[in-house]
Amino acid sequence: MLGAIIGDIVGSRFEFNNHKSKKFELFTEDCSVTDDSIMTLAVAKAIMETVKSVTPSQRYDFEFHEQLSRQTVKFMQEIGRKYPDSGYGGMFGRWIFSADPQPYNSFGNGAAMRVSPVGFFADSEGDTIDLANSVTAVSHNHPEGFKGAAATAVAIYMARTGALKSEIRERIESDYYPLDFTIDQIRPTYRFNETCQETVPQAIQCFLEASGFEDAIRNAISIGGDSDTIAAITGSIAEAYYGIPEDIEAKALSYLDSCLRQIFDEWAAFLPPQNEQYKLLTKYIGRLAPRTTTADVRLSDWENFPYREFK
Length: 311
Hints:
Elements: H1 2-11, H2 35-53, H3 62-80, H4 90-96, H5 110-113, H6 116-121, H7 125-136, H8 143-160, H9 165-175, H10 183-186, H11 200-208, H12 213-222, H13 227-242, H14 246-253, H15 258-270, H16 276-286, H17 299-303
């Protein structure tokens, strides 16, 4: 989920001051953590606490999902109230401070910007969608809210488990959104929009056209619009596919205060080891042309692999 946090931090200074270019300094003193990161960490906390409260045999059953929804409300409110000026939308801000928080038929892109922990936690694509629905239904229960969250989580899950970009594109276009545009085509006219249907496909396209994690973030900023949220969605998928450069990770974590950093560290310890780079290598080799060996692949081909360093 750190990719979402990085996108949020980098995009924070551009949300209402769009920068339609890929040339900019990633981190400055004007950058900050906003509601995107805070709610992402709240969902991660909800998942961790739910897992602690059930036996392994109960994972993903009805009670698990009921508990996850309750914990999502609890931690989004509990953590969110500590940061009242972090940029919540009007209706969601009232939800955060409500004594009786109820879903309000929202299709805002908050459903997608906070869902990334689901994509990194789930054991299957079906579980990914079910978990995304459970953490989304508590507020953004409009069909487009569910769709935006599920599309983002599925893209993360697929990227994490070895899917090619062509396969991710195919799944998104088949089940969620048309991606019949390029970033260069939409950049001149794209405008601020806070709905899932007008930000999630754009964010996914920013990932699909990227050559690496940082390039994905730069793509997201360059189209303008709701910059921090688009970059958060893009960054979450790009993290699953490319990983995150160590220098960018270290700088981003310096923006988290002790409360948020504690949740992040707990999440990092909670997730099982990610060995997906080996699956990705195997998948790419399997797609090489007949009689082509790894020794025959041009260096430029290897440079386009999602993971280029194997540790």
